[in-house]
């Protein structure tokens, strides 16, 4: 801080303002009196007739000090220092004259004094004024040039307080007609406006010292008790001096002739008051400081309590969620020892909290080795989600559960325990098993009559049950074809069911597609030719793919039979090559083709085109959906290109099998 | 002219198969469940056994296992009859020692052909 205390807070700026005002008024006062001396305006010099005058040097000193105080309040250090020094010099020079009885010739240096009130040295200010002026000078100097000391501002404060005391004592003397208070011994007394001026100057200096202390430490100055005590003590001393000595001016009686001890009592009392004042101010400061720090501590504590309460609420909420959950939630150590067990777990497994805590979680497992890999994953920080397994209840029942196990980390990020949520899926599993059974049963129940129908029709049609006419044979063949269609529909429906429950099984093995396609071609080529269509095969040697033979036959048969179905005339062809994308099998026809909208919907369930050829051809609309699902299970792609009226091309792309690559083998 | 043991619980299907095989000149012995099949097979070892995979009580596979672990019956060829959608059963059957399989609904001609094929293979190497 390079300034003399005028920064920031309202308090400080008010004080500074007051100090500035005081300085200005004192300077103005001095100026007025100087003007009075120069223009012989006695009223300015002497306020009231018979009153002591303000000496010229004092007035000059006031101008200097006032200006210095103003500049101090305005943070101007150098002017303050210089002016203060000047004032101090004047004052100390006068003091020296008093002390050594010498005459330095400054008293009437500038103006010849023409007002004499029976004083010893004309033109010279009294010792009290001289002392006050010196102290003001020193105080201003110390405000500007701070001594190198932590509480340096005690210096101007003390000095200022003595000055205040001197001025105040003089004013009390004027008020109470105790001349000794404003006039020491036989010397020139302090004029009343001089007393006022010094009080203001002293106050201003103390105020600025206070500001400096406040700016540096943020609280009231520590020297306040001292200053308060000193002020009161000094005033007391002056009054005591005044009361005891009185004025030794000739002809003036001692003030209290009949009560010699009163002044001493007053002194004692006054000094005691000074001490008490100082002490009580200090106490006030200390308690205020304590209160403030208590407040700070209090606030911090409150925030801490609030934070704790919030945290507790959050914990309680979480605990409530765990307690009320339907699922079993348990926490275990990383070795598998059960630590916590919620009511959901009690309900699911049948064990109470007391029965499981501390025991190993494998007591719940159906198979011995269930937990091993799981805990290893947890230790690595992995979360295991929805693993389906079988657990045992207290009464030995097997239940199907879906487990989610998560690692629990502490604040430093180390994995300290594991939390398991077990969801009872016994019902779902039962349903699945029932569904499987149902599908199996339905499949069986549907196929058995179909087998009978097909078989007996065949027996009759082949003449094994007796001679059969051509018409009879033809009719039987129609019946047989229809029963076959029914069989296909049943197969499709069952496949659809498998696809939708995602249980379509493919057993992938390394496979050469060439014989597979040859198979399809030989079976369906006959059908094509019997319809009058040309049938071509164009199959190059192919690298192996990973595939399920019967499923792939299903796919290609479906594509080729579709091609034949929807081609009134022309040809159906199978191409197979290998490219960078894999093995590509294309089934090409010159049939009725598909519109853009139809192409978009082609692989959706039950989609069948609307053209009369399609309707005539029959079919379930499931074949392509199943084909797509099978191709996708092979990690392959199926797409279509078509032009309405010109033909259609289906392309199946399957990835080439690379030995030792991470491809699925069911 | 072979002796064929047919284990099939559905009467009509059994009638159908028996009719065809008899017309082809074979002798058909019918069992209506797995246990009876084993009993009959032990009593009179047949030239060929046709087993339905899905039967109540002992399933076709269990019967197959028992047949193959019987010294006298081990060499008898077995054809499994299974339903589509149970390909795994097919493979299990083949691994279990069946020589062939037919999938319902099947063509009787196909069944008869497979029967002939299985019987041909059975001819012991000493007789030509």
User: Describe the biggest sheet of chain A?
Assistant: 5 strands, antiparallel
CATH architecture of chain B: 3-Layer(aba) Sandwich
Structural class of chain A comes to alpha+beta
Q: Considering residues with a beta carbon less than 8 A from a beta carbon on another chain, report the largest interface and each chain's count.
A: A-B, 27 and 22 residues
The sequence of SSEs of chain B as H and E is EHEHEHEHEH
Query: How many extended strands of chain A?
Result: 12
**What is the arithmetic mean of pLDDT of chain A?**
83
Number of DSSP helical runs of chain A:
20
Distance between the termini of chain A: 83 Å
Multimeric status of the protein: heterodimer
CATH topology of chain B: Rossmann fold
Shape of chain B: globular
Task: Identify the overall geometry of chain A.
Answer: rod-shaped
Strand line-up across the major sheet of chain A: 2-1-5-4-3
CATH superfamily of chain B: Response regulator
Largest sheet of chain B: 5 strands, parallel
Poorly predicted runs of chain A are: 1-8
Question: Total strand count of chain B, please?
Answer: 5
At the first level of CATH, the class of chain B is Alpha Beta
DSSP strand content of chain B: 15-25%
Q: In words, what does this structure look like?
A:
The complex is a heterodimer of chains A (666) and B (128). Chain A is built from 20 helices and twelve strands. In chain A, the strands form three sheets. Chain A has a five-stranded antiparallel sheet with strand order 2-1-5-4-3, with helices on both faces. In chain A, a hairpin with a 5-residue loop joins β3 and β4. In chain A, α9 packs antiparallel against α10. Chain A is rod-shaped. Chain B is α/β, with parallel strands linked by helices and 128 residues long. In chain B, β1, α1 and β2 form a beta-alpha-beta unit. A five-stranded parallel sheet of chain B has the order 2-1-3-4-5, sandwiched between helices. Classes of the chains: A alpha+beta (666), B alpha/beta (128). Chains A and B meet through α14 and α15 of A and α1 and α4 of B.
């Amino acid at each position: 801080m390079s300034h003399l205390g005028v920064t920031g807070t309202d308090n400080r700026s008010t004080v500074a303002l007051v100090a500035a005002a005081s300085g200005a008024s004192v300077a103005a006062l001095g100026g007025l009196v100087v003007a009075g001396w120069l223009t012989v305006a006695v009223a300015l010099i002497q306020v009231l007739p018979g009153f002591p005058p303000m000496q010229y040097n004092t007035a000059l000193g006031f101008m200097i000090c006032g200006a210095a105080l103003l500049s101090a309040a305005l943070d101007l250090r150098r002017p303050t220092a210089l002016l203060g020094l000047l004032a101090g010099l004047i004052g100390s020079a006068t003091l020296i004259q008093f002390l050594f009885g010498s005459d330095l010739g400054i008293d009437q240096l500038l103006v010849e004094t023409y007002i004499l009130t029976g004083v010893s040295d004309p033109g010279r200010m009294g010792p009290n004024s001289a002392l006050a002026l010196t102290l003001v000078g020193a105080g201003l100097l110390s405000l500007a040039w701070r001594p190198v000391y932590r509480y340096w501002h005690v210096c101007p404060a003390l000095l200022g307080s003595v000055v205040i005391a001197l001025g105040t004592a003089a004013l009390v003397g004027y008020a109470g007609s105790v001349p000794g208070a404003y006039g020491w011994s036989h010397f020139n007394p302090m004029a009343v406006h001089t007393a006022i001026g010094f009080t203001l100057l002293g106050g201003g200096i103390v105020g600025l010292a206070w500001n400096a202390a406040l700016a540096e430490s943020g609280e009231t100055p520590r020297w306040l008790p001292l200053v308060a005590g000193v002020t009161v003590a000094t005033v007391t001393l002056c009054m005591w001096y005044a009361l005891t000595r009185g004025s030794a001016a000739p002809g003036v009686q001692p003030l209290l002739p009949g009560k010699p001890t009163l002044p001493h009592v007053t002194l004692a009392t006054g000094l005691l008051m000074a001490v008490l004042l100082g002490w009580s101010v200090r106490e006030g400061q200390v308690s205020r400081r304590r209160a403030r720090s208590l407040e700070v501590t209090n606030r911090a504590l409150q925030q801490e309590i609030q934070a704790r309460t919030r945290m507790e609420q959050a914990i309680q909420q979480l605990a409530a969620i765990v307690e009320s959950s339907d699922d079993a939630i348990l926490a275990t150590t990383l070795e598998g020892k059960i630590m916590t067990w919620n009511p959901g777990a009690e309900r699911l497994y049948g064990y109470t909290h007391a029965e499981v805590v501390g025991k190993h979680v494998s007591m719940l497992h159906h198979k011995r080795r269930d937990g091993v890999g799981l805990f290893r994953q947890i230790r690595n920080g992995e979360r295991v989600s929805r693993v389906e397994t079988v657990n045992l209840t207290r009464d030995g029942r097997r239940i199907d559960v879906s487990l989610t196990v998560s690692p629990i980390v502490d604040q430093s990020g180390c994995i300290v325990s594991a939390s398991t949520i077990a969801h009872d899926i016994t019902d779902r599993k039962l349903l699945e098993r029932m569904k499987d059974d149902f599908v199996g049963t339905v499949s069986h129940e549907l196929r058995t009559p179909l087998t009978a129908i097909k078989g007996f029709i065949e027996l009759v049609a082949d003449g094994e049950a007796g001679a059969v006419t051509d018409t009879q044979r033809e009719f039987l063949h129609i019946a047989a074809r229809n029963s076959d269609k029914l069989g296909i529909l049943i197969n499709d429906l069952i496949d659809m069911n498998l696809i939708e429950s995602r249980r379509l099984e493919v057993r992938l093995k390394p496979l050469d597609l060439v014989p597979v396609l040859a198979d399809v071609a030989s079976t369906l080529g006959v059908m094509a030719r019997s319809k009058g269509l040309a049938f071509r095969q164009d199959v190059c040697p192919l690298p192996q793919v990973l595939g399920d033979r019967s499923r792939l036959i299903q796919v290609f048969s479906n594509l080729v039979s579709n091609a034949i179905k929807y081609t009134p005339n022309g040809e159906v062809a199978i191409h197979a090559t290998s490219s960078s994308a894999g093995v590509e099998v294309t089934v090409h026809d010159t049939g009725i083709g598909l519109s853009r909208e139809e192409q978009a919907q082609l692989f959706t369930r039950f989609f069948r085109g609307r053209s009369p050829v399609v309707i005539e051809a029959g079919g379930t609309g499931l074949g392509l959906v199943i084909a797509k699902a099978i191709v996708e299970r092979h990690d392959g792609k199926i797409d279509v290109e078509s032009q309405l009226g010109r033909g259609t091309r289906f392309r199946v792309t399957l990835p080439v099998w690379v030995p030792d690559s991470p491809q699925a083998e069911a | 002219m072979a002796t064929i043991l047919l284990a099939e619980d559905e009467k009509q299907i059994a009638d159908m198969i028996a009719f065809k095989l008899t017309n082809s000149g074979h002798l058909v012995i019918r069992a209506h469940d797995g246990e009876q099949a084993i009993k009959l097979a032990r009593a009179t070892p047949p030239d060929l056994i046709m087993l339905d995979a899905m039967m109540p009580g002992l399933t076709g596979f269990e019967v197959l296992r028992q047949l193959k672990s019987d010294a006298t019956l081990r060499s008898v060829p077995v054809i499994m009859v299974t339903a589509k959608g149970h390909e795994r059963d097919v493979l299990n059957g083949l691994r279990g020692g069946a020589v062939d399989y037919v999938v319902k609904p099947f063509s009787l001609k196909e069944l008869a052909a497979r029967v002939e094929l299985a019987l041909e293979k059975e001819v012991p190497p000493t007789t030509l």
